[in-house]
Design brief:
single chain, mainly alpha, TIM Barrel, two-stranded parallel sheet, 2 strands, elongated
Length: about 110
């Protein structure tokens, strides 16, 4: 999906919600723009991911912690894919990923 795909779907009235995948969209900035537009339109959001390293996963987790992400997401733990990783692994705890609170991610 691109931003124009999203806007086309909005124009067609084809959305009740949107799954936002920062890596697929090209980064967290465009993902945040789509999030903001979805919230403006009253659409529910879900956060999604691909096979990001700990850095990309941290960005997706932080984005998914914003208001409006009310649909269950599909982010997995980064330790499933990378050993070793560039950061401390993001590990599922009772089905949840903790939101990073530090800029260094170590």
């Amino acid at each position: 999906m691109t931003k124009s795909d999203f806007e086309n779907a909005v124009a067609l009235g084809a959305l009740d919600g949107v799954s936002i995948k920062p890596a697929r969209l090209g980064g967290v900035l465009i993902a945040k723009e789509i999030h903001d537009r979805a919230i403006e339109l009253g659409l529910a959001c879900a956060i999604g991911g691909m096979l990001e390293s700990g850095i990309g996963r941290a960005a997706a987790i932080a984005l998914g912690a914003l208001p409006g992400f009310s649909i269950p997401g599909d982010l997995g733990a980064s330790d499933r894919y990378f050993e070793p990783d560039l950061t401390t692994p993001h590990v599922l705890v009772d089905g949840q990923l903790l939101v990073p609170t530090r800029a260094d991610l170590a």
